[in-house]
Design brief:
With 163 residues, the protein is mainly α. Helices cover 67% and strands 7% of the residues. It has a three-stranded antiparallel beta sheet with strand order 1-3-2.
């Protein structure tokens, strides 16, 4: 098995603090480093569509919500786990690019819905296809059984946080 930069950190801690079991640092450290690499790799694909990760997430949430591809700002920020201010900024940028539009909520006179425009629909259709190809490329170093095991372990860890 190959060594990575986290192995060096763990070896240093082992040398300096042999009384501590620092193995959790290896897992968390690798996850953190991977998150940064993954964000960069994903952003490369999203940039081809003049999107950033957050904007892709908004368009994807609207697209996968099904017709008529509308969600309230509250549904969006709850789904994407961001603040209302962050969501407003993303919606503003997407609206300026004519990828989404704000429309009145017919079920709540005070409410607004965010809706994919035809242009937004076309962009997210192409972007999600490229995204899946990119993710498949990223995970290609793992065997199918390894991907399944990793998915199961990550799900278990995520559920422990989100219960």
């Amino acid at each position: 098995m190959e060594f990575d930069p986290v192995d060096k950190i763990l070896a240093q801690w082992q040398r300096e603090r042999p009384d501590l079991d620092v193995s959790p640092m290896g897992i968390i450290g690798r996850m953190g480093r991977l998150a940064k690499h993954l964000e960069r790799a994903l952003q490369e694909t999203f940039s081809e569509f003049s999107l950033n990760v957050g904007e892709f997430d908004v368009l994807a949430a609207l697209r996968r919500s099904g017709q008529p591809y509308q969600l309230s700002p509250t549904e969006l920020f709850n789904t994407l786990m961001v603040s209302s201010g962050t969501m407003t900024h993303r919606i503003d940028r997407l609206e300026q690019a004519k990828l989404v539009k704000r429309i009145p909520d017919s079920s709540d006179r005070r409410g607004t819905l965010i809706e994919l425009t035809d242009k937004g629909f076309n962009v997210i259709e192409k972007a999600v296809e490229a995204h899946v190809v990119n993710e498949r490329r990223i995970l290609s170093v793992l065997e199918e059984s390894e991907r399944k095991a990793l998915a199961d372990l990550l799900r278990k860890l995520l559920v422990s946080f989100e219960e």
